[in-house]
């Protein structure tokens, strides 16, 4: 029943019990496990949960007052879900959903691949670039902002820029993109964000084309699954869940430089 569009676990559980499904049915327990894993990710931001904690949540969710759902039944349900490739058992007895495991391992491999690409310095005189950019923008960069520009200048293909609101992320993002424009044409430098409002804001503050992540994926699907660009700046990256970030990485060429901008947490 949970596979029917528009019917969540709670509604499906009530219907199933009314239709005669037993309270200790392994199908009911498996459906609840999937529900808890998704809920944990959405509500707590965690991509996995300790198996014993998962069992306790199942007990509460299924209102196991008569103790019909034993730990053995729970473990049997976990083993079936593992054999069906719907959940993955991690180290230290942690459980995660298979689709999330695929997304996060895919993200990791994608990052490793980018970090292994040989680096080529953009400009030999980064100090001069910083000096000129400060004069042009009528601002004095902090040491952290200068270091960010120097790291990007080294030619790295993966860069994460963290900072709370008001710390100058947008300012140095604009400077970094202009540094990269020394090597790449403007049309090959693209920004994106989760929401349309954030996408429009980054377009206005940096001057570079920007899209929502969803629109980039749609465009890629129309082009054989790839979105052609040499630099992609992802604003408000901390707002993006693992599944969407993985889908975004999958449409980028291996040599596309990725800049992720967001809050530390």
Automatic annotation (TrEMBL):
InterPro entries in the cross-refs: P-loop_NTPase, RecD2-like_HHH
UniProt-listed Pfam families: AAA_30 (PF13604), HHH_RecD2 (PF14490)
According to the entry, every stretch annotated as the ATP-dependent RecD2 DNA helicase-like helix-hairpin-helix domain falls at: 2-48
**Which protein is depicted?**
ATP-dependent RecD2 DNA helicase-like helix-hairpin-helix domain-containing protein
The species is: marine sediment metagenome
């Amino acid at each position: 029943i949970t596979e029917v569009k528009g019917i969540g676990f709670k509604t499906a559980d009530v219907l199933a019990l009314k239709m005669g499904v037993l309270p200790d049915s392994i199908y009911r327990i498996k459906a609840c496990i999937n529900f808890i894993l998704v809920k944990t990710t959405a509500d707590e931001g965690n991509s996995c949960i300790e198996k014993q904690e998962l069992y306790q949540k199942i007990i509460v969710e299924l209102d196991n007052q008569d103790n019909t759902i034993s730990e053995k039944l729970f473990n049997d349900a976990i083993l079936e879900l593992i054999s069906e490739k719907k959940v993955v058992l991690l180290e230290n007895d942690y459980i995660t959903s298979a689709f999330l495991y695929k997304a996060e391992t895919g993200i990791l491999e994608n990052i490793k691949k980018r970090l292994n690409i040989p680096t080529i310095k953009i400009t030999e005189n980064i100090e001069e670039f910083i000096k000129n950019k400060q004069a042009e923008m009528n601002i004095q960069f902090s040491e952290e902002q200068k270091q960010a520009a120097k790291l990007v200048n080294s030619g790295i293909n993966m860069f994460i820029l963290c900072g709370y609101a008001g710390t100058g992320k947008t300012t140095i993002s604009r400077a970094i993109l202009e540094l990269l424009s020394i090597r790449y044409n403007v049309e090959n430098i693209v920004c994106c964000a989760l929401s349309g409002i954030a996408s429009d804001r980054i377009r206005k503050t940096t001057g570079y084309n920007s899209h929502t992540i969803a629109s980039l994926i749609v465009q890629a699907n129309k082009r054989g699954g790839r979105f052609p660009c040499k630099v992609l700046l992802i604003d408000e990256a901390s707002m993006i869940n693992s599944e969407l970030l993985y889908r975004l990485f999958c449409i980028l060429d291996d040599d596309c430089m990725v800049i992720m901008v967001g809050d530390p947490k």
